[in-house]
Design a protein that fits this description.
- There is one protein chain.
- By secondary structure, this protein is of the alpha/beta class.
- Helices cover about 30% and strands about 15% of the residues.
- Helix 5 (about 165-175) links the parallel strand 6 and strand 7 (about 175-180).
- Helix 4 (about 135-150) packs parallel to helix 5.
- The radius of gyration is 21 Å and the shape is globular.
Length: about 200
């Protein structure tokens, strides 16, 4: 939020000649971005379009409000100006906690994680959610990296025919990796004792 505001207030996207030219943020001089880091409606020198108009309208409405309630914590971005005021109410998780004594059949991936815990093995959890756009080439490189890394991994894949190549990877890595093609309980995975690293998209 602070980075987007800095870029917008100082109109930094209109400065570079090319989409790949680094842009130094005014309030965060140690951070560099490019126009390529922003969605298509906003990465032009003169942005326009329905989505841009919609977001601009929301910015105007927000600026007239008393403040924002933000799902984050203050120490992550201390001493950053926010207009209107932002109240950080720490990370919230709306998922209901499991009730003690509750019994239900475990999915296959949960049993696999339990087995890794019994063996004293750590697991890398890889998931990019349902909104981040991952190209076939990007996913192929990520999958190849997982295969060659020799680490245990749990990879969540969308049901998409262009990602069918992971079937062969799954056969080659065998018990070292599990590829899941349905919805999972992300919270349950993240709190599992065997999961030590989470790889996801940024933002």
């Amino acid at each position: 939020m602070a980075i987007q505001r800095d870029v917008g207030v100082h109109q930094l996207l209109s400065v570079p000649e090319s989409n790949s030219e680094p842009i130094i943020l005014k309030s965060f001089p140690w951070i560099k971005v490019t126009r390529n880091d922003f969605d298509e409606s906003f990465n032009k020198r003169d942005p326009k379009g329905p989505l841009f108009d919609f977001v601009l309208e929301q910015i105007v409405i927000t600026s007239d409000s008393y403040g924002l309630i933000v799902n984050r914590f203050y120490k992550l971005e201390p001493n950053r100006e926010s207009q209107p005021k932002a109240w950080c109410i720490r990370p919230l998780c709306l998922a209901e906690p499991r009730v003690e004594g509750e019994t239900k059949s475990k999915p296959k991936w949960a049993n696999w994680l339990d087995k890794k815990q019994e063996w004293g093995s750590s697991v890398l959890y890889v998931a990019f959610g349902s909104q981040a756009k991952i190209s076939k080439e990007q996913f192929r490189k990520i999958s190849k990296g997982l295969e060659e890394s020799k680490v245990n991994f749990l990879l969540v894949v969308r049901k998409n025919k262009q990602f069918n190549f992971v079937n062969e990877i799954e056969k080659r890595v065998r018990e070292r990796g599990m590829i899941v093609r349905e919805r999972v309980d992300r919270r349950e995975i993240l709190v599992h004792a065997s999961v030590k690293v989470f790889l996801s998209h940024c933002g």
